[in-house]
Amino acid sequence: MPKVSVEIPQELLDDLDEHVGDEGKFVNRSDAVRASIRKTLDMLDDIDRRHGRVETDESESH
């Protein structure tokens, strides 16, 4: 899996860390960042579909 480096403000990183670890929703920071990216991309795809900017599976079959 490729590695990516990003700069993140400390406040955002602190918020992220609250959700990571034994008591958190994510095993580690990488897991949390991947989940966030997936969720964001899904939301952007939904917005594009609503605005007719991408074809859905249904429209492709017609």
UniProtKB/TrEMBL annotation:
Alphabetical list of InterPro entries matching this protein: Arc_rbn_hlx_hlx, CopG, Ribbon_hlx_hlx
Pfam families: RHH_1 (PF01402)
SUPFAM superfamilies: Ribbon-helix-helix (SSF47598)
Domain of life: Archaea
Domain called Ribbon-helix-helix protein CopG: residue spans: 4-41
CDD domains registered for this protein in UniProt: RHH_NikR_HicB-like (cd22231)
UniProt-listed GO biological process terms: regulation of DNA-templated transcription
Signal peptide: none
Protein name per UniProt: Putative transcriptional regulator, CopG/Arc/MetJ family protein
